[in-house]
Amino acid sequence: MCAMAHRDNFTLDGNISATTNASDSISTTEEPVAVKVLKTFCYCVIMLMSLVGNTLVITIIYRNKRMRTTTNKLIGNMAISDLLFPLFAVPRETAQILIGKSRWLVGGVGGGILCKIVNFAQDISTAVSILSLVVIAFDRFYAVKFPFKPAIITPKMCRIIIAFIWIVAIGIHSPYFYTFRLKTVQNDIFCVNEWEPAFDSIPTQKVYFLIIFVVLISFPIAVITILYTAIAIEVWKQNGPVERSCQERQRREYENKKVLKQVVTVVVVFVSCITPSTIFGCLVHFVWNLNFPPEIDGLNFRFSALFIMHSNAAISPCIYFIFNKNYRKGFKEIVQSCTRMFSGVTQGASHQSKMESRVEHATKQTTPRCQYI
Prior knowledge:
By secondary structure, this protein is mainly alpha-helical. It has a single domain, classed as Rhodopsin 7-helix transmembrane proteins (Rhopdopsin 7-helix transmembrane proteins). 73% of the residues lie in helices and 3% in strands. It contains twelve helices and two strands. It has helices at 21-28, 33-63, 70-82, 84-99, 108-145, 155-172, 176-179, 201-238, 247-287, 298-323, 325-343, 347-365, and strands at residues 180-185, 188-193. Strands 1-2 form a two-stranded antiparallel ribbon. The longest helix is centred in the last third of the chain and has 41 residues, at 247-287. The two termini are 29 Å apart. The relative contact order is 0.16. Residues 1-28, 346-351 and 363-373 have low confidence and may be disordered.
């Protein structure tokens, strides 16, 4: 996670690599085969769920133009960033479970580049997700507060915001291209995180961790909390003895409440998943001073914190399908398309399906238009 998950790399994944007691104990501790198999299986499950779930979310939004609202575009942006976990983080973690903490299988220039890219890619994913959640919170607040005003985030502005989110995430993690490098210790290759020779590693790493913690964790979560508190107050007011001016207002209020349930659940799950790794990073940097106390099982503590964080990429798509009928409908349409493709359904059946879709679309156009989510 942005400096939470892998800033433990500063000690745990081998920086000051094999020179601190903490990294020594983690690198040399050999786990039972059954434990390694169980951990690997757990990571394979979340990798499969994340790949399938987030790919489905992206595909559904892409296929259905009416679902390309600001909220769904940002959800799609989060899904794209979440794919970085199964593509980069999970393979690395499973390899380290099997061969030993921080050991790197690829040497040379290619291995050095891969060392930088893997850590960089998986950590910007968390940054993109939390910044996207901030924008979603602002968009939901405006929609609830001013239900009949034009959306403040236009499609063009949404694209600009998404690009800006990635620029910020990439910029704040750009030091990785300097700090992460390969190091050989006793014929073993390690991917380590060192600030030397330009900076003193330990104090610089603590300052960098603190910056990440404030900019990408504390401040965004505070903003999200304030916005959703304001939304809750506004929704509570709407539930009072307010005259319902028209059916359109009722529909908008109903749709807003549905979206709120979904996005609030996403936020709660996201914060719950990153909290263990955040606590872990704070302990490592500011309590244990980058050295594990002898009574702490650093190996399993680290695994648990990272696994919970990585599992968020697999849980989020499930939330969308549980709370939003349009995602369920999109999934059903994809399954039907695949079934027709592989079972050779007659052209007449396909034509009938298209006609039903057109009738449904025409029916929707005759009703007051609310945000399609």
